[in-house]
Amino acid sequence: MFLRKIELKNFRNYDNLELKFNKNINIFIGDNAQGKTNILESIYVLAVTKSHRTSKDLFLLKENSLFTKIIGEVEDDTKKQYEVLINKEGKRVSINNNPLKKVSDYLSKINAIMFCPDDLEIIKGSPLNRRSFFNVEISVFNNDYVRYLSDYNKLLKTRNEYLKENDKFNKEYFDILTDKLIDLNIKIYLERKKFVEKINKYIVDIYKNISGKDNIKVYYDSFIDDDKEENLKRQLQDKFDRLINNELFNKITLLGIHKDDFSIYIDNVKINNYGSQGQHRLAILCLKLAEIEIYRKEYNKKPILLLDDIFSELDKNKKENIINYIENDLQVFITSTDLDNIDKKIVENADIFIVKKGNVTRGD
């Protein structure tokens, strides 16, 4: 899979921009705050319909603009045109100029993995950051997951509103809401569990290749006890039954996958709160590289790699590890302030773009 070209209209600091790309390596060079990251961000939005930097879609619009549009020509087995349009009315997506009713029908078509300095917040930040990260990554592999999350959030809101009006409490209606919520909890839990199992299938060898050690693991910390699938519904019914009085008193749903978290352990130590910055960078690098292996070995796909100013943050060993993946016939987009930060072997095979104050020109 590779991105042949992209067109941006009113995106961040770009009025109109059209770029054609090498199917292997594309490097954007320029000082900070010139628009390099915005180009990689636009590719990521084209793939997953969301930014890796903000949860507010309207922040992607150029100042004083009514909309932003990203159009990309992607070649896989066939050549297709993908489009994401965002305005104050919401978000619209289309493939080959055919509008899709649901964003979930668009997801998982373009496979992209982003590496950026902000990735450290996946580990160091709040559980919300980690849930958001895993939700996006799972959605890319399974577009049904988006529907599960959407249905869950709507139902959770309805149930919470009903708890706030418990002077009119109807147990039969409440049980119906709870039963539907339990079913969605189980669906989301199983997809998250499956994804983490796949990550752990590959992350140990990746970590060992980089560090020489093999003691790393991703944990899914859920309120659901790991059990046989057929026992999960009964387990959750018991949990919710025991909490009904507390929920009526607090006027809010006290259990659910919306409170779950994810942890990374190195040498049997949870590094979310106690690891060094170097451990955090290494763990995130291994996590993302494991996703590449999932694409390759579980889905027989080659994702697009987006490397946003990460080479200056990595030591020689980690740089070489990424280079090994670049050499495996993946399309790669790299940003950097200086070509000296990037291995000469990569630069020799790359198309170079110079970015200055929102203007993009081709280098030598």
Largest sheet: 6 strands, antiparallel
SS content category: alpha/beta
Rounded average pLDDT = 91
How much helicity do the residues have?
40-55%
User: What Rg, in angstroms, do the CA atoms define?
Assistant: 22 Å
Looking at CATH, the homologous superfamily of the largest domain is: RecF/RecN/SMC, N-terminal domain
Overall geometry comes to globular
What share of residues are in beta strands? 15-25%
Strand order of the largest sheet: 2-1-4-5-6-7
What is the CATH first-level class name of the largest domain? Answer: Mainly Alpha
Q: Quickly count the helices.
A: 10
Distance between the termini: 26 Å
Give the tally of structural domains.
2
Q: Low-confidence runs (pLDDT<50, min 5 residues)? A: none
The CATH topology name of the largest domain reads Glutathione S-transferase Yfyf (Class Pi), Chain A, domain 2
What would CATH call the architecture of the largest domain? Answer: Up-down Bundle
The string of secondary-structure elements, in order, is EEEHEEEEEHHHHEHEEHHEHEHEE
For the structure shown, list the relevant keywords.
single chain; 2 domains; six-stranded mixed beta sheet; alpha/beta; Glutathione S-transferase Yfyf (Class Pi), Chain A, domain 2; six-stranded antiparallel beta sheet; 364 residues; 15 strands; Rossmann fold; 10 helices
Give an overview in words.
- This protein is α/β, with parallel strands linked by helices and 364 residues long.
- Helices cover 43% and strands 24% of the residues.
- It has ten helices and 15 strands.
- It has a six-stranded antiparallel sheet, covered by helices on one side.
- The model has no long low-confidence stretch (mean pLDDT 91).
